[in-house]
Amino acid sequence: QVKLVESGGDSVQAGGSLRLSCVIYIPVYSVNFIAWFRQAPGKEREGVAGMFWTGYGETYYVDSVKGRFTISRDYAKNTAYLQMDGLKPEDTAMYYCATSRTGLGGRWSAVDGYNAWGQGTQVTVSS
After folding, report:
1. In sequence order, what are the residues at sequence separation of 6 or more whose Cβ sits closer than 8 angstroms to the Cβ of residue 55?
2. Distances (CA, A) of 60 to 10, 18, 35, 91
3. Which of 33, 52, 65, 75 has the fewest CB atoms below 10 angstroms from its CB?
4. 3-state secondary structure 11-71
5. How many distinct helices (H) and strands (E) make up the chain?
6. Cβ(35)–Cβ(47) under 8 Å?
């Protein structure tokens, strides 16, 4: 059963921008926190950005993307976004969105904190 569907991945030159989308098909009352992860070949899955789905929507970012990436949400469309600017070759990876029933906050980058995952969308950045 498909729960989360990502889109927007592409091949771009360094310095370019992309916006990833994640449509949520599971009941949104079961979503407390949403995040974007990425995984490059031979590397562990890494938390990129996360936010509370409700309330003020406090956001969290891994240091390597601060100031370049922005996570956001659209309740009307049941969709989360990851705006990626100033892309670098080291950003090349498969990007996944994930949701959690709990408000992870400071533990947002722990992979085991999430109960639903999308299938991923590929981002490739060339120098």
Report:
1. none
2. 24, 19, 9, 17
3. 75
4. EEECCCCEEEEEEECCCHHHCCEEEEEEECCCCCCEEEEEEECCCCCCEEECHHHCCCEEE
5. 0, 11
6. yes
Q: Pairing mode, if any, of strands 18-24 and 79-84?
A: antiparallel
Note down pLDDT in tens along the chain; length 127 residues: 559 999 999 999 999 999 999 999 988 788 999 999 999 999 999 999 999 998 888 999 999 999 999 999 998 999 999 999 999 999 999 999 999 998 888 899 999 999 999 999 999 999 9
